[in-house]
Specification:
Layout lengths: L1 H27 L4 H9 L5 H10 L8 H13 L14 H36 L5 H13 L2 H15 L19 H38 L2 H8 L4 H13 L1 H12 L6 H7 L4 H10 L3 H29 L6 H18 L12 H23 L19 E3 L2 H10 L7 E5 L2 H5 L4 E5 L30
Antiparallel strand pairs: 1-3, 2-3
Helix pairs in contact: 1-14, 5-8, 5-11, 5-14, 6-8, 7-8, 7-12, 8-10, 9-10, 11-14, 12-13, 13-14
């Protein structure tokens, strides 16, 4: 039990680290989520409303980082992940709670069927090695290499579009309201056949190949040979002696897949427009919905940790070797130490004598010298480069520098009495970014060229007026 207690403590520390990283990520990223929401809805907010919305997003600017972290932990224990940008103003917990059962029902059942069927077929193929079942394994390896979404597209093209046996997309019939009635359950199963078949076909071959290889390795062990020499039945030897040991890697693989079930199969759910967590994740990534992505990441992390704990418990129960897991781990460490001590030691080569290290150091030294003496050898000449103005100056026209263009295009508005027009140049057309220019009504109020900080040259005939707007 000490082994399980230590594993549980390790998973608790890992969960705390995941929560902390999940808290810090949106606060380290550039941008303001409140401003992003308002730009999406093309609205304006007062400062009070903006602060209230920031508090709703968990970004209270009046509190320091430690206070925000404590408040985040409190909300997390209450299941409060904030508001979703994509489904604003719906809470993130409601969005995850609505989509998670669809994914667990689809991927959970599909993963369980693929694991059980693949493990059983792999045990039979390993026990009857050299028969016709070995000829089927290359087909399984080929199917394993095909992406899930491609298998889904083929199934849709053949069985949905070609024969018309199954629906093309959706999770249920919209004409039937969601409930626990037999009609809704029937249409739910009917719409889930193709997505589930896609996942089973893509995962079955991997489980079968892994179990077959483990079965072949286990059959060469001494205890299996002794059991066969005793005259035990083939079924008993296969199930109680060989398969019981060969199934341990399958348990680990199933636990990992079970932990990733909650993250959804993004491409499969996207192909079939299935309303699961993978489809919601796609919408969140498309709309930069960070609170929703945080919640999905956190739920996936907890599910993976729980699945790993389940795998440790399953190993502890299924391992037929006598003794506890700690004794086995200790003996393995001792055996490794003995092997390393008896292994002939190889003379270590000093890293300075390595030719590759010397060549790499020489290249870095050359680049360092060039970076230091480069400005004195070839000084920078601003006149030799392209001007900072995208639009050439013309009479009665003021050209704006690049950083003024960006500021003006995002935050400013045209000055009263000035005509705002688009001006394009070869460089701006190549980058798909238009520049701005302002046509002035007259030049009588122009500042002197010497007092204008943005004047091009002292010989410029047309003064520049960036400060007018």
């Amino acid at each position: 039990m000490r082994f399980l207690a230590r594993r549980l403590a390790f998973y608790l520390i890992t969960a705390w680290a995941a929560i902390t990283i999940n808290f810090l990520l949106p606060r380290l990223m550039p941008g303001d989520p409140v401003q992003a929401v308002m730009e999406r809805f093309n609205g304006q907010l007062s400062p009070e409303s903006s602060e209230a919305l920031a508090v709703a997003f968990g970004l209270d600017r009046s509190k320091n980082l430690l206070e925000q972290y404590v408040e985040y932990i409190e909300h997390l224990f209450h299941g409060d992940f904030g508001l979703s940008f994509t489904y604003f103003p719906t809470p993130v917990s409601s969005v995850v709670a609505d989509s998670l059962p669809w994914t667990i029902g689809l991927l959970g059942v599909s993963t369980l069927v693929a694991t059980l069927l693949g493990t059983l077929l792999g045990c039979i193929a390993g026990w009857r090695r050299g028969t016709w079942m070995d000829s089927v394994l290359p087909v399984g390896a080929f199917l394993r290499g095909i992406p899930h979404f491609w298998v889904g597209l083929l199934l849709v093209a053949v069985f949905a579009v070609g024969f018309g046996w199954f629906p093309v997309s959706g999770g249920y019939d919209p004409s039937i309201p969601p409930s626990l009635s037999l009609d809704f359950i029937g249409t739910l199963l009917y719409h889930s056949i193709l997505p589930a078949l896609t996942i089973v076909i893509g995962s079955l071959a991997g489980h079968m190949l892994m179990q077959r290889n483990m079965m072949v390795t286990t059959l060469s062990e001494d205890y299996v040979v002794v059991a066969q020499a005793k005259g035990l039945s083939s079924k008993r030897v296969m199930l109680n002696y060989a398969a019981r040991n060969a199934i341990l890697p399958a348990v680990a693989g199933f636990a990992m897949e079970l932990g990733l079930v909650v993250s959804g199969s993004l491409l499969v759910e996207k192909v079939f427009s299935f309303p699961g967590i993978g489809y919601v994740m796609f919408q969140a990534v498309s709309n930069q919905d960070f609170p929703l992505l945080q919640a999905i990441l956190l739920v996936t992390t907890f599910a993976v940790l729980a699945a790993n704990l389940f795998a440790d418990v399953a190993f502890f129960v299924l391992d037929p070797v006598p003794g506890t897991r700690e004794a086995q781990m200790t003996s393995a460490v001792e055996i490794t130490k003995v092997v390393k001590s008896t292994r002939p030691r190889r003379k270590k080569r000093h890293w300075l004598r390595s030719r590759k290290v010397l060549v790499g150091a020489a290249i870095l030294a050359v680049f360092g010298v060039l970076a230091v003496i480069g400005p004195w050898i070839a000084p920078y000449d601003p006149s030799a480069t392209s001007p900072d103005v995208l639009v050439p100056p013309s009479p009665n026209t003021c050209s704006v520098p690049r950083h003024w263009e960006r500021t003006f295009s995002r935050r400013s508005s045209p000055a009263p009495g000035s005509a705002l027009r688009w001006a394009s140049s070869p460089r701006s057309s190549a980058r798909r970014s238009p520049s701005w220019s302002v046509s002035l009504p007259d030049t009588s109020a122009a500042l002197p060229t010497s007092s204008c900080p943005w004047a091009q040259t002292s010989s410029s005939s047309s003064p520049c007026f960036p400060c007018r707007f």
